[in-house]
Amino acid sequence: MSEITILLLYLLAAVAFAVSRLPRFENVSRGVFVGAMGFALAGLLLHAQFLNAQINPESGLILSIESTLSLVGLQLSLIGALGAIEPRLRGMTAGLLTLAALATLPLGLQGEITQSMELTWQIQAHILTSIFSYGLLAAGAIIAVFALVQDRRLRSGRFSAVNHLFAPLETTEKLLFGVATAGFIGLLLSVVSGFTFVEDLFAQHLVHKTALSILALFLFGILVAGRIFAGWRGKRAVYLYLSGFAFLCLAYFGARFVLEEILGRSWG
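Request: output the structure for the sequence above.
Response:
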């Protein structure tokens, strides 16, 4: 039941953060924000405690697909809580917390896992870098979706209270490219550490993950370079970001699902 409690806390926080941005609640926005942050922090603490028991028992490290996804959700909720300090980003925080809430659900569906892994510190560093970069780029994907929706609403001339959930488009784009740059660096470190420390990286059961990760890295690299040297922005840049993230999703979870759930093979 812990995952249900975490989900409810995140969803309550998401709704409260969104409400705090609406004009009709302006007089009570500060109180709503305090309540939202309380729900978010409570969810974060419970999520961290619950996840630690799932992935780091006394027998050793356990990283199933479900626990890895939930770990990314924990990172999204942390990014969202930090972003909510800036009032204009609280709408995005609502989106991040909603996704984090959904990421907790698979933990309740997984069976009992008894097999743990004894990993060297190099492999642990590779895994943590991979998860960190994925979580950061996942947050960027939410920001990218916000940018697309906001751009479409501006072009269509649709103005309503919902617009208050969005930061200015220029702010959203700057945030997106900041996240893209940090995520690209993290992903680059992950790929380099993989080549350095992981044996048989191009073995048959890992080649798809490796190839898709390199392709995603290539796309994010083009995006970052285009932003720095040519000032790329707008829908094309956002679509390129989402394309890179789609390949990264396939690398991290698509290939892993086929490997572990269908073929019954170990990820390492």
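Residues 234 and 261 are 39 Å apart (CA to CA).
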